[in-house]
């Protein structure tokens, strides 16, 4: 299993500013993922973060808006840049473990409100 | 285009009243079908992964089944603590680790 923590748990930010969200996993993992959950919606994948390579972004998400770092096998950050109220969401990181059964674990999320 | 659809959107049950949630999927190649429970203000909690048609998995009052086109989550004799949003997600064979989620079913169980 994997235990994932995120910081901050929530924040209120002004439009035009940036926020960096941290994600820590309690074991070394190859791939980490960042998802967004807009109010009342389900989860949408933003990007995949592999250690030692550039993050891979899904359609509709760009690096200038959501830069990601992956400095080692247990840690990643997601920055939400030049925020607008439309960025108000829950941001979640996750990782997948493989073996007899694949399991994808999620962090508790960072609840962001942009005013 | 890959698609995951859940129904119903919301379900209100009396305690003890069994029911089923549906997750239909249209994907290029299914690697695994995942079920999660999400409580308000929390991240999704993993429940099951199903891989092939005919597979079934159980955990307490929950049982998940898989066919070639859909998955069902059966809740047997639910209790108020089973109230949550239940999410299903598909992982395809060409996108290891990436999950495509359905919109979820919000379940409320009343005493």
Q: Please, could you describe this protein's structure?
A:
The complex is a heterodimer of chains A (115) and B (111). By secondary structure, chain A is an all-beta fold. Helices cover 0% and strands 53% of the residues of chain A. Chain A is built from no helices and 11 strands. In chain A, the strands form 2 sheets. In chain A, strands 2, 4, 5, 6, 9, 10 and 11 form a 7-stranded mixed β-sheet that branches. In chain A, strands 1-3-8-7 form a 4-stranded antiparallel β-sheet, with no helix packed on it. In chain A, β7 and β8 (75-80) form a beta hairpin. Chain A is globular and about 45 Å long. Chain B has 111 residues and is mainly beta. Chain B has no helices and 11 strands. Chain B has strands at residues 3-7, 10-14, 19-26, 30-38, 45-50, 56-59, 62-66, 70-75, 84-92, 100-101, 105-110. In chain B, strands 2, 4, 5, 9, 10 and 11 form a 6-stranded mixed β-sheet that branches. In chain B, strands 1-3-8-7-6 form a 5-stranded antiparallel β-sheet, with no helix packed on it. The radius of gyration of chain B is 13 Å and the shape is globular. The N and C termini of chain B lie far apart (41 Å).
Distance between the termini of chain B: 41 Å
Radius of gyration of chain B: 13 Å
Q: Which ranges of chain B are low-confidence, i.e. pLDDT below 50, for 5 or more consecutive residues?
A: none
**Total of DSSP H or I helical runs spanning 4+ residues of chain B:** 0
User: Poorly predicted ranges of chain A (pLDDT <50, ≥5 residues)?
Assistant: none
Which whole number gives the mean pLDDT of chain A?
93
Beta-strand content bin of chain B: over 45%
Helix content percent band of chain B: under 10%
Based on Cα principal axes, name the global outline of chain A.
globular
Q: Which chains make the largest contact?
A: A-B, 22 and 23 residues
Q: How can the largest sheet of chain A be summarized?
A: 7 strands, mixed
What is the beta-strand fraction of chain A? over 45%
Radius of gyration of chain A: 14 Å
Distance between the termini of chain A: 37 Å
What's the main sheet of chain B like?
A: 6 strands, mixed
Taken in chain order, the helices and strands of chain B follow as: EEEEEEEEEEE
Strand segment count of chain A: 11
Q: How would the global form of chain B be characterised? A: globular
Overall residue-averaged pLDDT value of chain B: 95
Q: Fraction of residues of chain A in helices?
A: under 10%
Number of strands of chain B: 11
